[in-house]
Write a structure and sequence with these properties.
Elements lengths: L21 E3 L11 H14 L1 H4 E3 L4 H18 L4 E3 L5 E3 L13 H6 L5 E8 L2 E8 L8 H4 L4 H4 L11 H12 L4 E11 L9 H10 L7 H7 E12 L6 E11 L9 H14 L2 H7 L5 H13 L1
Antiparallel strand pairs: 1-7, 2-6, 3-4, 5-6, 5-9, 7-8, 8-9
Length: about 300
């Protein structure tokens, strides 16, 4: 992990529970950092141990999946020549990656996902809206791919406070998906978790139970300092030129909350983070699983800001 966070949307630049989409330069579409090989090794492990939980596809999405693989094959060696190269068969390969056994999954989207740290989701337009038609999701942030597979955006967003069917954000997102052309878009989301697990699923039943029981995850400020991690999702959207499906990428950055105490701008970041937590209402806190711990986290952040 980096000494300081790569992204800090909790600084007030990306408000929680807002759409927050911004234009993105194509050259910055994919991110590569020092965790590349560790993240790819974890993807290999998940594909080997639980492929049915991390990959789904409708049978007629293979051409669109190949489109994604071709886009990455063209982009990665040009943008990241130190880590990616064109192999003899024309497929982009990651330099110096230890050999791994062949995977049972031969889908192009799986091959594409094993080149990058991002998870890759294909959304397809149907008569009832945009639905999740295929996806490689090795690093879920408190949701499960199998529960969202085949569902429309309207249904997927039901649990998110303020984003349910018929809401203004729901309608805006659908129009944005329809209006995408060649440009790329970017947004950020954040949460706080215990430990540094990349694979962090949560079922709908587990979410409902968490919102009802509101368990505490941090007994005291010492435990926050030792085990609280900031989980930042960097999300991008691009419409594929041939299939016209939308590719949704999710890149996870994990940093110990304690890293803020070493940040050169710690006072501003910690104070802003505390203010955003304070501003969350009960439904939003329940959704993020922070209801029981919000005040304790705010106290920790305010102390870090003042130190």
């Amino acid at each position: 992990m980096a000494a300081t966070p790569a992204h800090a949307p909790y600084d007030g630049s990306s408000k929680p529970f807002t759409i927050g989409l911004k234009p993105l330069a194509i050259g910055d579409w994919i991110e590569v950092d020092e965790n590349l090989f560790a993240h790819l090794a974890e993807k290999h492990r998940l594909y080997a141990e639980m492929p049915e939980k991390v990959f789904v596809e409708e049978p007629d999405t293979r051409a669109a999946q190949q489109e994604v693989l071709d886009m990455l094959t063209a982009h990665l060696p040009e943008r990241f020549p130190r880590t990616h190269a064109v192999a003899g068969d024309g497929v982009t390969a990651v330099r110096d990656l230890p050999p791994t056994p062949p995977l049972a999954l031969d889908a192009p989207l799986v091959a594409a996902s094993l080149l990058v740290q991002e998870d890759l989701i294909l959304m397809r337009r149907g008569g009832d809206g945009w639905r999740l038609a295929a996806g490689s999701l090795c690093f879920p942030s408190s949701w499960m791919l199998t529960e969202k597979f085949g569902k429309t955006l309207h249904t997927i967003h039901i649990p998110v406070p303020g984003f349910g069917p018929g809401s203004r954000p729901d309608e805006l997102i659908a129009r944005m998906f329809d209006g995408l052309q060649g440009q790329a878009m970017e947004r950020f989301n954040w949460s706080i978790q215990v430990g540094d697990a990349l694979y962090h699923p949560l079922s709908n039943i587990q979410r409902d139970d968490r919102a009802t029981t509101r368990p505490s995850r941090f007994a005291d400020e010492g435990e926050i300092n030792a085990s609280a991690f900031i989980r930042v999702e960097r999300q991008t959207l691009r419409k594929l030129p041939v299939s016209r499906d939308v590719l949704f990428t999710i890149r996870i950055h994990l940093d110990p909350l304690a890293v803020l105490a070493r940040h050169p701008d710690k006072a501003r970041l910690a104070a802003s983070f505390a203010a955003q937590l304070t501003a969350l209402d009960t439904a939003q806190l329940d959704y993020k699983g922070l209801t029981a711990d919000r005040d304790r986290l705010v106290n920790w952040l305010q102390a870090a800001a003042a130190a």
